[in-house]
Design a protein that fits this description.
By secondary structure, the protein is of the alpha+beta class. Helices cover 29% and strands 34% of the residues. It is built from two helices and six strands. It has a four-stranded antiparallel sheet with strand order 2-5-1-6, with helices on one face. Strands 3-4 form a two-stranded antiparallel sheet.
Length: 108
């Protein structure tokens, strides 16, 4: 099973050097166990663009779709054998990055 672990923060690229070391350790564990599919940070929503080209509408807007104080500042996509294992890994990821995380199962 594949899961998304979304890192929730109020700014992007905000990890301290101690947090980065803990994140690196977590990433190394996921890689060694063959559970890492992908991980990365995400640019601040203020840098986003909303594009709606349904029915060739051609709408391009600067900025986020929604204004929130907190947002997804990064993520891991992992492989886990069960939801329980994914929850345990998400808890470790939350501790490592010192942020809330949201765990969601991926379809397909």
């Amino acid at each position: 099973m594949r899961f998304l672990i979304a890192v929730i923060d109020d700014r992007s690229n905000s990890a301290s050097s101690n947090e980065m070391a803990a994140i690196d350790e977590f990433n190394d564990h996921l890689t060694e166990k063959g559970q890492m599919i992908m991980a990365c940070g995400v640019e601040d929503p203020s840098q986003s663009k909303v594009i709606d080209n349904r029915a060739e509408a051609g709408i391009f807007e600067e900025g986020p779709l929604h204004d929130f104080t907190e947002f997804m500042a990064g993520f891991w996509i992992i492989s886990a054998s069960s939801e329980e294992e994914a929850r345990d890994l998400a808890a470790w990821g939350s501790r490592a990055c010192n942020r809330k995380v949201e765990l969601r199962k991926l379809h397909g």
